[in-house]
Amino acid sequence: MRTITGLFxxxxxxxxxxxxxxxxxxxxxxxxxxQAAGADNATAGTQDRRSESHHGxxxxxxxxxxxxxxxxxxxxxxxxxxxxxxxxxxxIAEQAPGDQRPGAQSPDI
Length: 109
Description:
2 helices
């Protein structure tokens, strides 16, 4: 399994990516995490637990604050999931190995 993360400029783009994964690819919602990337995007009740730099985005090279969508995906589904994130406006970070236990939350997310 792999953890992939997309950085989106807006919440609307991130939500479209999640809906694409869930509705078109039958991807389980409980393996998708959406969160603000940086304190400037945090809303009431949102914790800035992980920064964009943690996920491999560099502000100086097209990264920056936005909305992060991270998901734990089977190795054979990485290309399809990556395409879904990119098609909806996501910039993809380097893919990290995920937790190998089925249904487990990745420590990288």
